C-alpha cells in the first residue's frame, strides 16, 4: 500500500513526459529511473554521456541525509574516495519540481549552472526548498515504484557521518575516508540504458516547478542544504565522521 501511495503522489499530473529508462544495479538492489528527455534535454544528455562512458560503473552512494536526499555520481573507491572525471558544467533546467522520488542534479552553491556528474534522489517533497534555491535544482527523471524498496534499504543502513555503510556498526566507523573498505560502501556496480526510446514512458506526469517564477532574489546564493557539492567537495579533507544511525 505504501508503494502505491508513493507512486500515486509522484505521478500527480501537471503535464506528461516521455522517458529513456536506465537501470542502476547496486549491491543493495536495483533502482530503475525514467528520464525526462523532452523537458530537460541538456541534463538528460549529460547524464547519459556519463552512463555510456562508464563513469558511474563502480561508483558509490556517498551521501545519505534522512528525509532529504540520497546522493551519488561523484566518487569511486579503491583505497580511498576518488572523484569521477567530469566534463564541462551544464546549463540549469529548473522546469520540474523536486518532489519525492525524483532524481536531480547536484551543483556548487552560488552557481546555478555548475552541475556536472553528481545527482541525488529526493527522499521527500523538497520542492519548497530546492525548486528555488540556487536557481532551482534540475529534476531530470523519476524512479519507479518498485525502486523505493532499494532506496529504503540504503537509507536504513548504519551511517558514518552521511555515508551509508554495509556491514559496519556505529563503533566501527573509520576516522578517515581511507579507513573504509569497498565492501563497506554502497556500490553502484553498473548503470545501463534498458530502453533507449525517448517515448518509452509516455504515461509519466512530472510536476512542474511553478516556484521558480517567483522572486527569489533573497535566496539566489544556494547552499549545501540543497544537495549542492559543498559537502562532497570537503569529503576528502575530513579527518573523521560523526556517528549516527
Topology:
Blueprint: H1 2-10, E1 21-26, E2 29-35, H2 41-52, E3 59-60, E4 63-65, E5 69-72, E6 75-77, E7 81-83, E8 102-105, E9 119-122, H3 127-130, E10 139-143, H4 148-155, E11 159-160, E12 163-164, E13 187-195, H5 230-233, E14 243-244
Antiparallel strand pairs: 1-2, 1-13, 2-10, 3-13, 4-5, 5-9, 6-7, 8-9, 8-10, 11-12, 11-14
Order of helices and strands: HEEHEEEEEEEHEHEEEHE
Oligomer: single chain
Low-confidence stretches: 1-15, 215-245
Average of per-residue pLDDT values:
84
Distance between the termini: 26 Å
* Number of helical stretches of at least 4 residues: 5
Q: Which strand order does the major sheet show?
A: 3-13-1-2-10-8-9-5-4
Structural class: alpha+beta
Q: Count the beta strands.
A: 14
Estimate percent helicity.
10-25%
Task: Tell me the fraction of residues in β-strands, as a range.
Answer: 15-25%
C-alpha geometry: globular
The Rg value, from CA coordinates, equals 17 Å
Biggest sheet statistics: 9 strands, antiparallel
